[in-house]
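Quick illustration for those who missed Monday's session on complexes.
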Amino acid sequence: MSKIGHRLEPKTRPPEIRKKDFEEVELTISPEEAIKEASRDIKFCAAPCSFRGCPVNVNIPGFLKKVSEGDFKEAYKILIQNTPVPSITGRVCQQEIQCEGQCVLRRVGEPIAIGAVERFVGDWALENNIEIPVTSEKKHKKVAVVGSGPSGIVAAADLARMGYDVTMYEAFHIPGGVLAYGIPEFRLPKRILRKEFERLQNLGVNIELGVVVGTTYTIPELLKDYNAVFLGVGAGRPIFLNVPGENLAGIYTANEFLTRVNLMKAYMFPEYDTPIHVGKKVAVIGAGNTAMDAARSALRLGADVYVIYRRGRNEVSARAVEFKHAEEEGVKFIFWAAPVEFESNDGINVSSIKLMKMKPGEPDRSGRPRPVPTGETFNFDTDMVITAIGFYPNPLIPQMTPDLKVDDHGRVVVDIEGRTSIPRVYAGGDIVTGESTVIEAMGWGRRVARTIDKDLQKI
Ligand code: SF4
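Prediction with iron/sulfur cluster bound:
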């Protein structure tokens, strides 16, 4: 360990303070910390972090070298060649399974805190008003990007840099897609999102809010005005448990709960218009990142929160750091239990959940032990439930566009380069793959932007 030193762990605000507000939990590292951490990089490795670990292939050795020299501006220039929003990716990427998961220092010690250094560089550039340079001549061709989430952001930025006229359409009143409605302020502050979008606009991307493509404009209508259309509308349709009592009052999907909290600022009601009901004892079903976000939001709104998961502690699918932060803040966990029925004392509001005790079985396709019912049930009293067991692709555009081919799971069918069944219409991200990570969706945005460029150069 002596030569490569210990990995920097970013500071967090104390749990007893942060659990009472929506301010950011983790703090951006200092310039000195960034230089020290970047200097741990061993030179001349094959950079599997970049080629195998990062879906947008950030030149990690290149940007770390510049940070280690204290040249943050050059580091930023290197970073944005691959991620146009390093302040976002540095915060929300699952680095432990992406870039840091492939870091060669893992073999001899601890991986470099790539995400923390990337976030530092992104924030430094935002504070110092460093813009993303346009790299190509104007092409005088127009591309519509539908959806302003992760895949749309990267597609729009790349196409604008290539010289295309890009208009991005977003159904909500603020841009960001899942980054805005799904991720709470304490993990990704809206001011960061706002600044990154200002930068996209400075790059020439025109953003139209409150436009529901599929109803406000159809795809054939967009094709009359644009040379190409990119669909990056994500996966935001909640999966339901399909157990009796799921329609009782007091049972929310994480999607609705988080949208109210994140997008409508319900936590500031009555200063903001949208109210939110939060129970005294809240049960969150599921243990992915969305479940952690919902649990920690409910905690901040004053509830006693329990996460109920059908598998065990070692199988929690949320990022390790989010699980840790949730436990530190006082979220409690009930493992190896799955809802079989929601019950009500008054026939209207949920009052308890009948839970089946589960036990670990043979590994499933994910390699984790399959949860197997034991046949034994118990009751858990609660006055609010938030279900967070996953999402399907958004159905509106496929429903309104009969020629757009989708598979049995509602995913848009594309060729290997992102072309759909409709000429000049492309798709990428969760609408194609089903629910995935932010950075995987961004990787799609990059790939499909290249395809669009390749195809448009022929006409
Ligand atoms: Fe790692 Fe994400 Fe940055 Fe890629 S974009 S280097 S995966 S933090």
